[in-house]
Amino acid sequence: MIKDTQSYIVRKESWNDYHLLSLESPKIALEGQPGQFIMVRITEHFHPLLRRPFSIHSIDGRNVEIFFLNSGLGTSLLSQKKTNDTLDILGPLGKGFNLNDHFKEKDVAIIGGGRGIAPLYFLAQRLSSLGASIRIFYGGKTLADLPLKDKLKKAGFDTFFSTDDGSFGFKGLITDFFKAELEIFTPIHIFSCGPEPMMAKIAKIAQKKKIPAEFSLESVMGCGFGACWSCVRKIRRGNKEEWVKICEEGPVFSADEIIWKEGDK
Amino acid sequence: MIDLSIDLGFLKLKNPVIAASGTFGYGLEFSPFINLDKLGGFVVKGLYYSPRQGNPPPRLAETASGLINAIGLQGIGVERFSEEILPRLKNYNTAIIVNVCGEYEEEYVSVVDFLNKKEGISAYELNISCPNTKKGGLCPALSPENTYSVVSLVKKISLRPVITKLSPNVTDIVEIALSAQEAGSDAISLANTFLAMAVDVETRRPKLANIFGGLSGPAIKPIILRMVYQVASCVKIPVIGLGGIMSGSDALEYLIAGAKAVEVGTANLIDPEATIRIIDELEEYCVKNGIKKIEEIVGTLITQ
Question: Inter-chain contact A220–B268, Cβ cutoff 8 Å?
């Protein structure tokens, strides 16, 4: 865990309401793992008061990249930052995806919805370097919600797209597309991040097919490093269910640990 | 060399800055960021006798220059605390204060009774003021009688100094503070959070699952500061001020108003190094103003 108060924005990319910031922070870049996150201070003043959590989208040499959707006061102010501005960040935080050598030459599925694609790019890069054979399923409401489609293709990932309105790729939900794809494709592991109903559906599909799955969960956070106990989620541990801190024990949890909200099942 | 130390009478602090309960975990969460030995002290997260699940999420809502929390004192209970945490805190050379909670009066007593037998604790802070554990924020600190009752019960058996943490959600804070003093409390920490709420207008639902929570942060500082001034003018025991301290200047306001020490809470969440920065800023202020001993400025508000 490092506090870096002098993290420069070295690059910024924007697609309507989606933004990517590349922050120079060599120490965090050195330690960060796929699925981990950083806490970004939005302003040195007191409104908004709290830092905001962002999963690591990618690590590019000395730079840590975040990708986010402008969806409130914090992200809106952050999206107005410019190249060469400095940010105060903490990281890397949390526990990321469970990665190991047994993915080598194996089929792995990555499913991202909307801004949930954020941590999955870094994950795909790492899985790729581990020699896994990856398929990425990337869904959004409309074409404008798939800002990373060219980047994923350019990186050489085998990527499938869906939009709710059919403006790009498969028309419908990415979960439906993925389910159909499983008739001809049997991944040994599923990784996913996106809206809760999407992840809950993926979990159900994974369970039916007996494929292990991991999900990166989202929460409002007070501190990001375990001190305030705000970001809890009910997690299954053996026979017990308990409130577990997403920032410390997550944000990535395995399918058998997560208790999905009623209505998302 | 500036003397930043503070003598509370029952406890000597290296400096007036204590990390506040509920924002500092069990202390160890902050060791990657700061040298805990540099603190005046820290108050570990509120402890009930048994482990506690706390409230369902969402537990947090951000407001203008503040935040409302309804954690509900989720925690590990005294046994796990003594086995897993206390031994690891032993190596730190700072005042370690345990925030003691109870659903009933007897529970405060049993927590203190249990912890009395353990080493490595400098004092107890009686949390009779958490607004999050019962609907509507009921707690002993809302009445002088209940405050007197629980404080005197604990004082009877406590082998350590007792700091009573009061609630700001009362009409007459001085009356409650005097009750705590009369019951034998060694100090007062003032104050816990303000009972508050926030509404999501899109869903028309409360932003907290618990509906109510406790407001903290810079938004509440002027009100608590007023209370600290009122109480410090009336009680003989030391007052520890807390509420929205983000900087050395904020801490100084409390000291000048009469607080002997301060607790820093919400600031820890935003900046895990906040306590250390505040200590440094206090020292800078002393250097700049030719103050040799920081205790000299306690209660020096000029009103004429």
Answer: no
